[in-house]
Design a protein that fits this description.
The structure is a single chain. By secondary structure, the protein is α/β, with parallel strands linked by helices. It has two domains: about 5-255 and about 465-480, Aldehyde Dehydrogenase, Chain A, domain 1 (3-Layer(aba) Sandwich), CATH 3.40.605; about 260-440, Aldehyde Dehydrogenase, Chain A, domain 2, CATH 3.40.309. The chain contains 15 helices and 20 strands. The strands form five sheets. The chain has a seven-stranded mixed β-sheet with strand order 14-15-16-13-12-17-18, sandwiched between helices. It has a six-stranded mixed β-sheet with strand order 9-8-7-10-11-19, sandwiched between helices. It has a three-stranded antiparallel β-sheet with strand order 5-6-20, with no helix packed on it. Strand 8, helix 6 and strand 9 (about 205-210) form a beta-alpha-beta unit. The protein has helices at about 50-70, 75-90, 90-105, 105-125, 160-175, 190-200, 215-220, 235-245, 270-280, 300-315, 335-350, 380-385, 400-410, 425-430, 465-470; strands at about 20, 25, 30-35, 40-50, 130-135, 140-150, 150-155, 180, 205-210, 230, 250-255, 260-265, 290-300, 355, 370-375, 390-400, 415-420, 440, 460, 475-480. Bound molecules: nicotinamide-adenine-dinucleotide.
């Protein structure tokens, strides 16, 4: 493995036996890397580190498998995906334990992630991408057919690895493509486990899952045998993916970072909405692309809402995901932990800013940061302008709704956002002005399988989920049958 991932090691006293899925079979690699439990900072497993030669074989297998897979009736492809989902369901507890160990989230949340992935799988299977008749008149008949692209290269991050792998597999396969999927080197094991289960349910080569580092992702984006990259991760990497994919004109879907604003108007019931706002910000330790990362609050309710959020933070148990009652786990990896601490150090240097709670790492092993709420902060600081991706929430004061909307939109991100008010019509009117892929009214967070999800601006390109999502796994073919006017018979009408 290369670059930013954990170090390559060979230690035999750790959990082993994880394998890639290549051409329907389990396979190890000569090299491996450590997977670290973020609650302890200590490695607990070895993960095989795939080579370029293994990627070449996986891509070749996917190309072979694609030929027959795309010709299967849609119903049969759906049946195979449904059987795969049912098999995953029988192993939810096992996957959840591994997810807590590699990702850090509380065990109950890990279970919910796997179950949510299955709900989304069902939702994708219920979505149809129909052939569209766009012309049927005196000029003839023309229809738009959706043709699979071939081999999808899917690349996922470390925050919700199961939730992100499952829809990429489902959307690729239901539209008739084969897939080669690479999880983050920080959380590769649950995805390798999905591959192990997939072997039993799909023809060899249809689903290939290989673990590797950042360089492996680069090999995928430049590979001539891959037709499209479906990437979820940071803006910086997304730009690299797009540049690299340009060499072979691969299609790309980029689901990138967000710096979501929630705007709270002056008429809200603070007690009722505070828990919703808190969890939309601190769930998964703030490591959700569409978490609230900038909370704009009207002056009239600012102090009351800040106090309510701090009170909730005081009741929340932070700790290892297997401990009873824990609701917030660690930050997932050392790099991210150091980045969030660096943002906090910068925040403390800003004049007038108040840290209402938290503000520091917890004095224990692992990558724990106390849930932190920062008041009297504004744009122009790193905490507000950048995506923190950790348990830290800046609360920004405003007096005028139009001004709050303008400030919320003054960002290179545009993933999602929300507006909160006792008057739903008022909230909706404001939400409609947000420059984001998803604008919520009195709600924030969640991807639903029938609604296209993706970002404006640097938060991404393309959409996943819904019929729009499936369209991005397909190429449009126009089949047109013009009505050619009958030629006048010789001697009739036209002069020779
Ligand atoms: P990251 O961009 O560092 O890594 C994501 C994946 O890309 C990993 O598998 C990594 O190995 C791979 N990668 C790294 N360099 C690569 C390269 N040059 N070519 C190809 N692949 C490469 O992101 P991360 O730190 O793992 O995840 C956090 C980010 O993901 C946050 O910004 C978050 O907002 C974003 N995210 C977005 C969504 C969404 O749906 N929009 C969902 C979850 C997370």
């Amino acid at each position: 493995m290369s670059a930013a991932g954990p170090q390559r090691v060979r230690r035999l006293n750790m959990q082993q036996g994880f394998t890639h899925t290549i051409d329907g079979k389990g396979e190890g690699s000569a090299a491996s890397f450590e997977v670290i439990n973020p609650a302890t900072g200590v490695a607990f497993a070895l993960c095989p580190d795939a080579t370029h030669e293994q990627l070449d074989r996986a891509v070749a297998a996917a190309r072979r498998a694609f030929v027959a897979w795309r010709k299967l009736p849609l119903q049969q492809r759906c049946d195979a995906l449904r059987a795969f989902g049912a098999a995953v369901r029988t192993r939810v507890d096992e996957i959840a334990v591994l997810l807590t160990r590699e990702q850090g989230k509380p065990l109950q949340r890990a279970k919910e992630e796997v179950l949510r992935a299955l709900v989304n799988l069902d939702g994708i299977l219920a979505t149809r991408l129909e052939t569209e008749v766009v012309r049927d008149d005196a000029r003839g008949r023309a229809e738009l057919q959706h043709h699979p692209l071939g081999v999808i290269g899917a690349i996922t991050p470390w925050n919700v690895p199961v939730l992100l792998a499952m829809p990429k597999i489902a959307q690729a396969l239901v539209t008739g493509n084969a897939i080669v999927l690479k999880p983050s080197p920080y959380t590769p094991l649950t995805t390798l486990l999905l591959g192990e289960i997939a072997r039993e349910h799909f023809p060899p080569g249809v689903v290939n899952i290989l673990a590797g580092g950042n360089a492996f992702g680069g090999w995928m984006t430049e590979h001539p045998g891959i037709d499209k990259i479906s990437f979820t991760g940071s803006v910086a990497t997304g730009k690299r993916v797009m540049a690299s994919a340009a060499a072979t004109l691969k299609r790309v879907t980029l689901e990138l970072g967000g710096n979501d604003a929630a705007i709270v108007l002056d008429d809200v019931d603070v007690k009722a909405i505070a828990p919703k706002l808190f969890w939309a910000s601190f769930g998964n330790s703030g490591q959700i692309c569409q978490a609230i990362k900038r909370l704009y609050v009207h002056d009239a309710v600012y102090d009351e809402l800040c106090a309510a959020l701090v009170a909730i933070a005081g009741t929340v148990k932070v700790g290892e995901g297997f401990e009873d009652g824990v609701l917030i786990g660690p930050v997932q990896n050392r790099m991210q932990y150091e980045r969030v601490l660096e943002l906090l150090a910068d925040t403390k240097r800003q004049p007038g800013v108040r840290i209402l709670c938290g503000g520091d790492a917890l004095p224990r092993p692992g990558y724990f940061i106390a849930p932190t709420i920062v008041a009297d902060i504004a744009e122009g600081t790193r905490l507000v302008d950048e995506e923190p991706f950790g348990p830290v929430l800046p609360v920004i004061r405003f007096h005028d709704v139009d001004d709050a909307i303008r400030r919320a939109n003054d960002s290179r991100f545009g993933l999602a956002g929300s507006v909160w008010s006792a008057d739903e019509a008022r909230a909706k009117a404001a939400a409609e002005q947000l420059e984001v892929g998803t604008a919520w009214v009195n709600h924030h967070l969640g991807v639903e399988p029938d609604l296209p999800f993706g970002g404006f601006k640097e938060s991404g390109i393309g959409r996943e989920y819904g019929a729009d999502g499936l369209r991005h796994y397909s190429e449009i073919r126009v089949v047109s049958r013009p009505i050619i006017p009958a030629r006048p018979a010789v001697g009739q009408g036209a002069k020779a």
